[in-house]
């Protein structure tokens, strides 16, 4: 299912759309270049977390900034348009065993991701993660916006198992207790019912036995071609 999306330029010329990467569904263990991306993203993710608590002197911070800027320049000047393994998000994949390298919530090659670890258990979607300091909202606890985003991903995976995946219509989150940082969290999501094109799903978030939050979402089924249209349109 990997594809290159083309856009039309002047004089009827066509070129690959750099904002619409080819997604390559793949369930094989990562190796080679892909594994290197995972390793680099993990290192950047760790730096993001440690930087927030660092008290390094100015000269070391400036030296690190210069090194980071040089590497960013290398990335800017290097080859672009690599394929992304898996899908951008779970809701349009419907396969919890696939990899989602570019996802901002699950992607092992995306340093923004916590990442969530998703699985299927008894017809429900489960996900575990540990939020570090870069996700802090209230002191020592996770920002509610990231909790909501994680719920959206879990519910999106759940609704995709209906065989008619769609996009988020509404998402309602009830925050029961603050969600701690540096603690293993467990999400559990399920489909409650389907009414025409609307898919109703719900999920919970626990730290141990403590209920931290719960969510309900309504997803609207869309034609698979709609996802291709969004990719071709770009960002």
What would you note in describing this structure?
The chain has 235 residues and is an alpha+beta fold. It has a domain of 119 residues: Roll (Thiol Ester Dehydrase, Chain A), CATH 3.10.129.10. The chain is built from 4 helices and 10 strands, in the order βββααβββαββββα. A 6-stranded antiparallel β-sheet has the order 5-6-8-9-10-7, with helices on one face. Strands 1-2 form a two-stranded antiparallel ribbon. Strand 5 and strand 6 form a beta hairpin. The longest helix has 20 residues. It is globular. The two termini are 21 Å apart. The N terminus is likely disordered.
Characteristic key phrases:
single chain, 235 residues, 10 strands, Thiol Ester Dehydrase, Chain A, disordered N terminus, two-stranded antiparallel sheet, alpha+beta
> CATH first level of the domain at 115-233: which class?
Alpha Beta
Helix content: 25-40%
- Can you write the helix and strand succession as a string? EEEHHEEEHEEEEH
The major beta sheet can be summarized as:
6 strands, antiparallel
Q: Tally the helices: what do you get?
A: 4
> Count the strands?
10
Could you give the topology of this structure?
Blueprint: E1 6-8, E2 14-16, E3 23-24, H1 32-51, H2 58-77, E4 84-85, E5 117-121, E6 124-129, H3 144-160, E7 166-175, E8 185-195, E9 198-207, E10 210-221, H4 224-233
Summarize the structure.
This protein has 235 residues and is α+β, with helices and mostly antiparallel strands. The protein is built from four helices and ten strands, in the order E-E-E-H-H-E-E-E-H-E-E-E-E-H. It has a domain of 119 residues: Hotdog Thioesterase (Thiol Ester Dehydrase, Chain A, Roll).
């Amino acid at each position: 299912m990997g594809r290159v999306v083309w856009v039309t330029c002047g004089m009827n010329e066509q070129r690959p759309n750099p904002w619409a990467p080819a997604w390559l569904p793949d369930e094989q263990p990562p190796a080679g270049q892909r594994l290197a991306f995972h390793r680099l993203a993990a290192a950047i993710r760790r730096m993001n977390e440690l930087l927030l608590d660092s008290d390094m002197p100015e000269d070391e911070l400036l030296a690190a900034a210069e090194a980071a800027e040089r590497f960013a320049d290398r990335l800017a000047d290097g080859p672009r348009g690599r394929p992304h393994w898996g899908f951008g998000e779970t809701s349009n994949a419907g396969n919890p065993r696939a990899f989602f390298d570019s996802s901002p919530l699950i992607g092992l090659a995306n340093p923004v991701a916590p990442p969530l670890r998703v699985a299927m258990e008894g017809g429900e979607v489960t996900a575990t993660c540990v939020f570090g300091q870069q996700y802090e909202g209230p002191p020592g606890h996770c920002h509610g916006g990231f909790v909501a985003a994680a719920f959206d991903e879990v519910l999106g995976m759940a609704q995709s198992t209906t065989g008619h995946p769609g996009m988020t219509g509404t998402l309602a989150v009830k925050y029961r207790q603050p969600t701690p940082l540096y603690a293993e969290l467990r999400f559990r999501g399920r489909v409650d019912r389907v009414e025409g094109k609307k898919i109703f799903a719900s999920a919970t978030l626990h730290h141990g036995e403590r209920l931290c939050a719960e969510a309900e979402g309504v997803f609207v089924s869309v034609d698979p071609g709609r996802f291709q249209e969004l990719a071709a349109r770009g960002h």
